[in-house]
């Protein structure tokens, strides 16, 4: 059962947090949530290492009818790939039944197992003050680490928040069962992990991880996916460039909303929806730096420097989106759009170069 904790990390007086659970603030919701759960199960590693080992970096542009377009940089199969790489058994539990979803989660908590879940962040009161009005994103990830049936609350950790947070049963249920974000509806998702007695050594997996990441960056969506508006790999940048002219035909209010969203999805200091900045490239660079040190591999340090610079290019692009959101005269909008297209075209060349580095990486220490 969950255990009474009188002063959790010196910052919380909540009574029902699972004993031994520790949260460390991070930059990306899924990788930071997994970091917390990994440590709880005795596998202590950095968020950047978890992100990198999951082949978390990619390129994708979604322009699905009746949805706001979205350009992202994280692999949708990140958790699956991470678990496959580290020989962790993964079950992605889902249910459209509200009661069943809660009972499944409660079983894990009663067994003193913190659980990583997906939730629509638009229902989390502690998040709302930092979100645009009516913002909904069903792919947000948090860790549930306890509950109190008397006060009808659960206790969670969430990315960059340092403290354990209190969420009402209603907030939790509404967020886990939300269908507003149809493409990423949470469906009561729980990532159920079963760890092996020993995970593989970094030396045995690093080459395959980097090769897989390189393939994600260069793989083009199949014809059927493209027909419904899903574009992946470096060609996704080309599609976005072509679409910018259509964006300029939107009303000023809609253009402002769309550009601010995209600035946040890429990530700047002012606008950041949990990428770690620079479309996850900074986070990936941290993984490469840490791996370079562990393996004493100078080539990976070179890769890290490359992706830090690429992250800065993406951040400049995000700042242009934010700048475009502030302009209401067509001439000004067109001028910034030209700069955006030039920036994206330069980034596409660099993304191809980076993918080439990863695809051709060889770890000399392998047998």
Describe this protein's structure.
It contains 13 helices and nine strands. The chain has 367 residues and is α+β, with helices and mostly antiparallel strands. It folds into two domains: 29-44 and 89-194, Cathepsin B, Chain A (Alpha-Beta Complex); 202-359, no CATH class. A six-stranded antiparallel sheet has the order 3-8-4-5-6-7, with helices on both faces. It has a three-stranded antiparallel sheet with strand order 2-1-9.
Quick structural summary:
With 367 residues, the chain is of the alpha+beta class.
What count of helical segments does DSSP give? 13
Taken in chain order, the helices and strands follow as HHEEHEHEHEEEHEHHEHHHHH
Strand content: 5-15%
Number of domains: 2
Assembly classification: single chain
Helix content: 40-55%
Ends apart, CA distance between termini: 46 Å
Total count of strands: 9
Question: What do the pLDDT scores average to?
Answer: 92
Q: Give me the side-by-side strand order of the main sheet.
A: 3-8-4-5-6-7
By secondary-structure content and strand pairing, the structural class works out as alpha+beta
Radius of gyration: 21 Å
Major beta sheet, specifics? 6 strands, antiparallel
Q: Based on CA inertia axes, which overall geometry fits?
A: globular
Contiguous low-pLDDT stretches (5 residues minimum) are 1-13
């Amino acid at each position: 059962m969950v255990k009474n904790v009188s002063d959790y990390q010196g910052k919380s007086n909540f009574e029902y947090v699972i004993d031994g659970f520790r949260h460390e603030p991070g930059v990306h919701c899924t990788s930071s949530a997994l970091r917390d759960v990994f440590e709880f199960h005795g596998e202590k590693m950095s968020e950047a290492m978890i992100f990198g080992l999951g082949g978390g970096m990619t390129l994708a542009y979604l322009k699905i009818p009746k949805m706001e377009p979205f350009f992202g940089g994280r692999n949708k199969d990140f958790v699956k790939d991470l678990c496959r790489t580290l020989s962790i058994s993964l079950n992605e539990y889902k249910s459209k039944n509200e009661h069943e979803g809660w009972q499944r989660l409660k079983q894990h908590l009663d067994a003193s197992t913190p659980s990583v879940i997906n939730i629509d962040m638009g229902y989390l009161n502690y998040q709302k003050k930092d979100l645009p009005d009516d913002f909904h994103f069903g792919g947000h990830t948090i860790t549930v680490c306890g509950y109190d049936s008397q006060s009808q609350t659960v206790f969670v950790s969430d990315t960059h928040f340092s403290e354990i947070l209190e969420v009402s049963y209603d907030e939790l249920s509404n967020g886990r069962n939300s269908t507003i974000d149809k493409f990423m509806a949470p469906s009561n998702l729980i990532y159920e992990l079963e760890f092996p007695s020993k995970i593989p050594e970094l030396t045995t997996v690093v080459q395959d991880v980097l090769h897989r990441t390189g393939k994600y960056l260069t793989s083009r969506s199949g014809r059927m996916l493209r027909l419904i508006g899903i574009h992946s790999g470096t060609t996704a940048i080309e599609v976005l460039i072509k679409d910018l002219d259509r964006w300029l035909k939107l009303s000023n209010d809609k253009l402002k909303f769309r550009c601010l969203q995209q600035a946040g999805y890429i990530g700047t200091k002012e606008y950041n929806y949990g990428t770690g900045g620079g479309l996850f490239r900074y986070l990936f660079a941290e993984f490469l730096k840490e791996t370079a040190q562990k393996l004493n591999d100078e080539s990976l340090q070179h890769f890290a420097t490359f992706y830090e610079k690429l992250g800065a290019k993406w951040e400049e692009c995000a700042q242009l989106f934010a700048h475009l959101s502030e302009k209401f005269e067509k001439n000004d909008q067109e001028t910034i759009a030209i700069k955006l297209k030039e920036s994206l075209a330069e980034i596409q060349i660099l993304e191809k170069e980076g993918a080439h580095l990863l695809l051709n990486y060889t770890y000399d220490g392998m047998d």
